[in-house]
Here is the input.
Amino acid sequence: MNVLDQYVMRDPSDQNILDLFDGEWSSRMPAASELTTRPGTATLFEDGRITWAEQQLGSFSGSEVLELGPLECGHTYMLHQRGAKSIISIEANSRAFLKCLCIKELFGLDRAHLRLGDFVAFLRGNEKKFDATIASGVLYHMQQPMEVLDLMSRSSDRLFIWTHYFDAGVIAANEAVGKKFEQPQHASYNGFQYEFARQSYEKALDWAGFCGGPETQSAWLTRDSILGFLQHCGFSSLETAFEHPNHPNGPSFAICAKRA
Here is the structure.
């Protein structure tokens, strides 16, 4: 690329900012913004899962929220709209982080504080208790998902999690997804017995808009392992929704967990 190709010689506009990452966007912009992104298919700026999470966990207004893996700040935008006092959003993917900065500027998310780096490292050293922790689309990208659940459970008494999970029968029936998985394994974490299977990202790593984990593989927990461990961590209220066992990318569901 010639250095002169990096200049934008059109009238300044919000659309110019989004076009910096043309072809790499996962999220569709809010309908009222009249802005476009490509491919931009996921409605993360108008996501019913966040609406449901607020109904289950209580109002986000005035809350200090920790968000793990904001991707393109769609949920950050929604939390900000709902009056969160502060949102610390930690993103490890450098291109996703730059897209988050674009969104923060476009929509004036002045109560959102973006951090570039590994949220697992942050959680290991964190001593602050947040009013809520949001972890959408990150657990199944982890190398040690049980540790991440444990660390999240220490960060807040209110958790929202959306994740894919391992189900041997369902995944075996999905040829495109099933070929990415190794045989399931059983293990123990702090005395809790759980089941998981490792998967490989394969060709997904070739897309500039890749939004997975930092390694070529990750570990998917079973649904029972996730729910059982949250109970083990003292969450007496567990609500599930958005059950999608036949999701094209693998079975998925959402959880709201609260301690009494």
